[in-house]
Amino acid sequence: MDKKIAFFPGSFDPFTKGHEDIVLRALSLFDEIIIGIGHNSNKNRYFTIEKMTQWIEQTFEGMPVRVVAYNDLTANVAQEMNANFLLRGLRNTTDFEYENSISQVNRHLVKGLETVFLITSPHLAPISSTIIRDLHRYGTNVDEFLPYQLD
């Protein structure tokens, strides 16, 4: 039987407890999860990819989770990683509308690449990387929103 590998793409700037929740819940569905930190040419990163990779790896130490950085189409990278699923978290209907369109394109690009959506746990739904960056930028402690300690 083929290994069920999920590719969880995002900018993860930063990787939040909401993201962690999706990965932990998805571990019961997949044999391995690859967290892909993508380069978005429309965004300047707040936290470096190197630092974020380190923090995410610490978060999932000892679990079948690995982290890769990439600068290509998500569907292509998933295929290169032998992932047959894309994993996405949804906080609300706005997320669904956006993610649904992307999933259709990805399935067109790579036949058989299925997107699996998990609904964010309600107590984590208000958390977004954008909000956390803004809070941190202006000196607010954001530890309660992150599964690791900033250094």
What features would you describe in this structure?
- It is built from 5 helices and 5 strands; from the N terminus they run E-H-E-H-E-H-E-H-E-H.
- The chain has 151 residues and is an alpha/beta fold.
- Strands 3-2-1-4-5 form a 5-stranded parallel beta sheet, sandwiched between helices.
- Strand 1 (5-10), helix 1 (17-26) and strand 2 form a beta-alpha-beta unit.
- The longest helix has 17 residues, at 93-109.
- The chain is globular and about 45 Å long.
**Overall body shape:** globular
Q: Termini separation (Å)? A: 42 Å
Quickly give the structural class: alpha/beta
**Average of the residue pLDDT scores:** 95
Radius of gyration: 15 Å
Query: What is the number of E strands?
Result: 5
Quick structural summary:
The chain has 151 residues and is of the alpha/beta class. The protein has helices at residues 17-26, 49-59, 74-80, 93-109, 129-137; strands at residues 5-10, 32-38, 65-70, 85-90, 114-119.
Core attributes:
single chain; 5 strands; 5-stranded parallel β-sheet; alpha/beta; 151 residues
Which SSEs are present, and which pair or pack?
Elements: E1 5-10, H1 17-26, E2 32-38, H2 49-59, E3 65-70, H3 74-80, E4 85-90, H4 93-109, E5 114-119, H5 129-137
Parallel strand pairs: 1-2, 1-4, 2-3, 4-5
